[in-house]
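User: Working on a comparison across species. This one is Oligoendopeptidase F from Deinococcus soli. Can you predict its structure so I can line it up against the others?
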Amino acid sequence: MTATDLSAVEATLAVPDALTRWEAFAPRVQALLDAPLSAVDVPAWLTQWSDLSGELHSVAAKLATHADLHTGQPDVQSRFQAFTGTVMPEAARAEQALKEKLLAVPDYVPDASFALAYRRMRDEAALYREANVALGVTHEEQKNRHSVITGNQGVTLRGEALTIPQAKQRLDHPERAEREAAWRALTESNLGVAADLDGVMRDLLSTRWQLARNADEANFRDYQWKVLDRVDYTPADCAAFHEAVRDEVVPLTAQLAGDIAAQLGLDSVRPWDYNRSNLLDPHGRAPLAPFQTGAQLETLAQVAFDALDAGLGARFGQMRAGGLLDLESRPGKMTHAYCQYFPTHNEPFVLMNVVGTAEDVRVLFHEMGHAFHGFYSGDAQPLVWNRWSPIEFVEIPSMAMEFLTLDHLGHVFTPEELGRYRQKQLEGVIAFLPWAAQMDAFQHWLYAEAPEDVGIEALDAKWLELDRTFHPFVNWDGLDERARAKGWQYYHVFQVPFYYIEYAMCYLAATGIWRAAQADPAGALDRYRASLRLGSTVSVPELYRAAGVEFRFDREHIRGLMAFLRGQMQA
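Assistant: Here's the predicted structure for Oligoendopeptidase F from Deinococcus soli:
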């Protein structure tokens, strides 16, 4: 990425000092609280509140993103932490007071477009506890410690200093010795920060259990279930999903990995032979390398989006021109990929750590699916609470975009390479499901079954047990299993507890959207866009139906989709 591009990003994320203080927002909050409010006044009052909430969210999102881009700069971190510690608690109290004012309006009946948001506000107000406001600040500070530790983590491989994404790229090398060297270097780096992350998790567990107790919930799972507004399925449904994946998908994943190993003449599948995001090439070919720089990735993506749909292409062009993309990996930058959203101007922002791989291409399409969701829901839904969608749907726009772009990459890959890329996409769905089930099962155990004072050793032991269940085909003989036991030290476990099974739900749905697109590509894309415009105005099952699929993740459904994927890979 060029200096000019980074300057544009910095300009996009700039926040005036005045907006980092509560005094910038307090008078408008007070005006809303003081305003007379009858049922007829509510729509106009909600518009004012929505605008204020959008501005607050935009400032918070920009400061958080800026902190993720500069994990090694104390001044940037301090600015974000100061905002989190001073403004956000006041914002939480104000939100509660405004909800209570709205809920107390006599004879008010929300229209259909606001009914779900109104119900969520009612449930959120009931869950609110003043004690959790200050504790929430502590929670954010603890999560930020994880970002700083991992954002400043590096890898030394044969004397070369690499970022984590750069080192992970070496795991796809066709030479087994190179993969093993990269894996061992990454393992050494991970173990080097493991004790620090253990400490963060100890603090997070204490905080999370206290949040639950303060809200009169039996455990953190019950508390988080309400925070995440999970009203369409139960923990028992999740347990059934874990079992279905264990029985229906793990054997298929083992077969895929084993067949590839056999074709490569490997004695077994070692940890450096298995990357769930990019299974090894069975012919030992070098990984696809479709670009070298972030600018090149932007160009190839622009061509693909223009070919798929002119409207999507224009939106991507808007992000390129507006400093809304930061793609390349560099030291001091948080190593994850995500799409942020700034409501005030209806602008998404994509952060990545690309190193030139085909996987980077897929991830950019994924994150841009989120961005399109932000754009379309923001265009259609004036109230900030109605934008985006419930989390059980929110990964469908991203994962479906991975599939919908498959037929528009002739400028990126040769026909043979495109076949490889397509195969990796299908394999990736299958290989992902055991990981998703393992992540979800671990968190159900951690927050509902394990004792509140559970020790780190128990976390390690439980992860090992689950990894042997969901990835039994990976051979760890003779290796130090501390690295395996620390597999739970993953971004989502620290940053967004319980947000993971949604990826599996949405990958299943995205596969269904792609299946429909093969028969009717224009219709599938129309349904895709229409579902994004609905935002949060309808229920999760209705959103799925609008996209042309069912909200299902049961055994029979999984079995049918796995059969479809097997057929596609053999075609």
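For your comparison, note: The longest helix spans residues 176-214.

User: Helpful, thanks.
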